[in-house]
Amino acid sequence: MQNLVVNLWMQGNGEEAGEFYARALPEATTEIESRYPSEGLLEFQQPLAGKPLTVSLWVRGTKITLINAGQEFKPNPSISIILVFNTGQRESLDATWSALMEGGTALMPLDAYPFSTRYGWVSDKYGVSWQLMETSEPVEPRASVIPSLMFGGAAQNRAAEAIEFYGQVLGAKLDSAYPYGEPTESATAEALMYAQFTLGEDCVAAMDSGVPQDFTFTPGVSLEWHCDGQAEIDRVWDAMSAVPEAEACGWLTDKFGVSWQIVPSNMGELMERPGAFENMLKMKKLVINDF
Question: Taking the complete model, does pTM exceed 0.90, yes or no?
Fold first, then answer.
């Protein structure tokens, strides 16, 4: 069961982006999951009345949510999504790369690297970053779509600390870790060049940037975590929220700057209640009985 969902902030073009990704990505489909109500919106939301609120994107069975919102935020490479292809899927990898490069920018060119026979890192036309990687090892579909956190800027060299913290709060389990071994422009010798850990059944990657970055984590890409019941919401919220002014509608920012949405497992059902959207706007931490 998928408990961690990557949420991408779209600037009013969520439906269009969903359709683009359904064409560009392997084994992908999209659908409008929810719409803004026609009444009860905040002033800045009123232009979105009746339009899609969340658009679901399914890639190889993994859900990604596109949040259709305003101009406040935009994705950046601090959180990217790794797509892993088996060796026999190179044609699919190359086709995906070509599609994402339409209006996009190559952050690392598609080429052979010491860690992969074919790899590329692209920021697409919506600002979303994707890492395409070929491997000779068999990969299950659920392990082939991996959110990757890059710790740079104010969060530089804190990847190992973050994994340990997420282990304490969310039960993260470290699977592999590769330190740099020698210092770089921005990373210490002990910093993580690459690490992979699991949150429940979900694979996540983390790394410390090897070069200085002028960006860091923002709500442009957030991580949605599902909790069973109010007690679990309370526990996770109290442990993770580190920026009181960022608390809104179930959103929080942790001590590393990563944005999270801490939501009930039955969030879809709760949002079908009359007045649920307006009630949610009044909350910081989500309280199930207040929907």
Answer: yes
